[in-house]
Amino acid sequence: MTLRGKRIVITRARHQAVAFANLLREHGATPILYPCIAIIPPDDPAPLDEALARLSNYDWMLITSTNTVDIIHQRLTERNSSPDFGAIKIGAIGTSSANAVKTIFGRDVNFIPSRGTAHHLGIELPMIAGEKIFLPQSAIANHVLADTLIERGGIVMAMSAYQTVTDTGGDDLPALLAQNQIDAITFTSSSCVIHFLYKLGYVPDVTVACIGNVTAQTAREVGFARVLIADNTDLGGLITLLNSAV
């Protein structure tokens, strides 16, 4: 266990931290829980609810984050609704999102791109021009995926499925940093980076391990000097990275 005794910070949302914390413990590390984001429904969830009620009208639903799966499940539970997910093709941006679909929706996805980026999902999705694509995503998602699909002839319904806010609480990270007791900080999205800075108030001189080039670029832009990128866009990739570099 090369991570034995290492203190690794988890910045992702509380409901997503458990699996990663358990994985770190299995590898001998001590997880430090410092939730920086909370995922909440959009201010007006009506458009999302209406789209879910008409899910069979679409050819594809694209999942770009496990957050999307969680919010959709929450909305369906609150409305006591059970759409037929077997009647639509589902594409996921990576294995984590695909696993969430399997766990929550009870089915496998139809497509995962060769790399876990919006660009690769957009250019590789085996769609046919004229197909209708339902794209529920973050309120602050960029337009790369939607624009790429539209250029390929897709009819895209992109909408806000969730918004990200800064969370509070967690372990006493400021004290641990002051005592040089942190070996690495992990970021699974750019939102985690931004809200980490909002919450802590400064950029510590600590190695950070990121999922994805976009997340890593955000970490560099806010001032982190030692930024590592996992080869695979899942928690296993982060563990492999941490094992080799921390």
Explain what you see.
Helix 3 runs parallel beside helix 4 and helix 5 packs parallel to helix 6. The relative contact order is 0.17. The protein has 246 residues and is α/β, with parallel strands linked by helices. The chain is 40% helix and 21% strand. Helix 3 links the parallel strand 4 and strand 5.
**Series of H and E elements:** EHEEHEHEHHEHEHEHEHEH
Query: What is the mean pLDDT?
Result: 93
Query: What does the largest sheet look like?
Result: 5 strands, parallel
Shape from CA axes?
Answer: elongated
Relevant terms:
246 residues, alpha/beta, 5-stranded parallel β-sheet, 5-stranded mixed β-sheet, 10 helices, 40% helix, 21% strand
Structural topology:
Elements lengths: L6 E4 L3 H13 L3 E4 L3 E4 L5 H8 L6 E4 L2 H13 L10 E4 L2 H11 L12 H7 L7 E7 L5 H8 L3 E12 L6 H6 L5 E4 L2 H11 L7 E4 L1 H10 L4 E4 L4 H11 L1
Parallel strand pairs: 1-2, 1-8, 4-5, 4-6, 6-7, 8-9, 9-10
Antiparallel strand pairs: 3-7
Helix pairs in contact: 3-4, 5-6, 8-9
